[in-house]
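Researcher: Quick sanity check before group meeting.
Model: Go ahead. Protein one:
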Amino acid sequence: MIDSKQSDNFISLSRQLLLAMPGKVMGSLANTVIYVCEHTEQGALGLVINRPTDITVGDLLKRLDLPLSLEIGAREQAPVFFGGPVQTDRGFVLHMPAHGYGSSIQLGDIALTTSRDVLQDVAVGKGPEHMLITLGYAGWGAGQLEDEIAQNAWLHVGATNQIIFDMPPEERYEAALAQLGIKSAIMLSGESGHA
């Protein structure tokens, strides 16, 4: 992860949601909601939480040669998400409760785990009550995210567990906007106005 030493005027967006502004964020991150796992002066790392892939949790576990027990239940059909364009062959699990696994990082009441042990638990019907599995992540170098925000590329709002884990993926963008008092993405413009 990123070194967390920070100066006095730095404002961290860790544990916030980033909302891609229409017309400003293009390519694979257009129209995304990103949970910022870590943001320091050295850069930021986040996971896209509203872009399910056609890969299911069951598919992923089978690819990892993890035998599935009957106890896995409906989780087998849950989607794996596109987490971002960096290291798309690497898995990340956002989960709660924030039970510690081999490589868990505590993010308040959520944890981010990259080790296989959390998936081994899921395969046998154990594991975290709430989880979101992604392949890949979104990353920014030092000052890059701050520059993009200054150019109106991203809105940010406090993250809620309900948006991350409970809401259908296609409703997460609008739900995060609603926290800002914006009723629809149609109200947004990538252009900034000047008086």
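Researcher: Fine. The other one?
Model: Protein two, sequence then structure:
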Amino acid sequence: MTSKILLFNRAMMVFLSLMILITGGARGQDTDEEKESKGSLSLSGYVDTYYSYNFNDPSNSDNFGTTGVGRIFDGYHNQVALGLAQFVTSYSTDRTEIVADIVFGPNAELANFGNVGTAFSIKQAYVSTTLVDGLTLTMGQYGTHIGYELVDAPSNMHYSLSNLFGNGPFYHTGAKLDYAISDQFGLMVGVVNGWDAIQDNNTSKSVAAQFSLAPVEGLDAYINWLGGNEAANNPITGDKADAYKHMFDLTASYAVADNFNIGINAAMGFDRAGTVNNDWMGAALYLTFSASDRVDLGVRGEYFDDSNDIQYLGAAYQGITLTASITALDGAVIVKPEFRFDNADEDIYYKGLNTLSQSQSTLGLAIIGTFGN
């Protein structure tokens, strides 16, 4: 009897072992499927540094000028400077994307000036989900739809930002709906807490809208609008002020050939406070030529008029930028030598010791290291 029991126990042990192996393998397969259905996690980002030499040789080592925005990011003369360190974590499924875009450094502070405290490091933080096919809801803090350029250095041809882009909004906090009408047309509408603000300064909201079109191969165009009451409420009485601010923006890019691209950006804005109605405007032309798989050459010419001092520059400006973008180490490193000439209708640039000038010329070198996707 004892031997039969032992045999039975051994048989049961073998059976249970086989079941564990089988079910364990099945669970392992289910886990892989669950992982696939749950989505994927990715990490990416970049670090950029630069050196800039200003031929005005300002004694205060300042490229920004008296207004503080004669240049947007690369504002230091004859110094090796840190631009920005970015870490982007995203989690994506078939219908949802969660993004945390965290940045540090001088350019992060300049681009994210509307935030305070720990939020100062948040460049983007949003949740985007597909409600139905073609219709996506995004809510949180996200980059602006205005302009041809981006804050991210690896994504731009030129290292220095244009005054046209730099004097517009960088980001918004709010909610938006994107609808893909077809392969050629798209529409976006949203409600945001103003321009470059994590919190609204009044009880009114601004409205954002975009119409995108790609009518022919190689041509992409975006018609953008942003508007709302941007006057701050009285901090004592809480009374609501009335200052309607809005802008129209056109961005387009056309691939003339496989190695030659033309881009344009034109914008006009209006600011009405009571009976006073002021405006600002600007335009930029971008020419990009791919000399090889690793070398791109770009020219940017721009005009920006903020003579009414509505945005930040407070002057009329013309400038030209010449840049080469050289990719090395399988895309991990981007080197950008750049020459830029700035000219304004007022003496807003520093020159030598205690002297001002209408213009400045700089020669710079940026090195950008990227990682992840």
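Researcher: One line on it for the slide.
Model: Residues 193 and 199 are 6 Å apart (CA to CA).
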